[in-house]
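[Target chain]
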Amino acid sequence: MPTPALHVEDGPCDPEVASKIQGVLESGGLVLLPTETVYGIAARADDASALDALARAKGRPADEPFTWHVGDTSCLDTLGARTASVERLVERYWPGPLTLVLPDIDGRMPSLAKDGRVGVRFPAHQATASILKLLPFPVAMSSANLHGEEPVSDLAQLAPSVSEAITLCVEG
């Protein structure tokens, strides 16, 4: 497991913990965060070098975009994607393990877009969602496994190369 490690319960996150996470992400570091299903590796989405570090940690091709993880539904306004059909999906499945692939109409998320579309996920893990909501910048996340391998739901499953790339581990 990477060090240092923090532990969060599945509830609103302590502001001090959120501040530590923000500091790591602002400096270009990678943070391991829990979701309701698996662990994910978070990087600042508007920092090209952080996204490169995330791709390297996973052994993932650089041309495969990451998913934008959000702490509320305001992303729909950011993307200009608040349509009746999207609203129905959001009402039924968010927060939760559903990634919506939405048009990036005005090109507001170019670092995460492919063919004019962005994958967006609002995790149901309350601590992670509250952290994402507090951050003043977008966050990209990907499952904490090597590219093509099974997602990680137990920290003991982390590949050594993934573990070494993570600056801060948040257990939950």
Q: What stands out?
A: The longest strand covers residues 39-44. The mean pLDDT is 92.
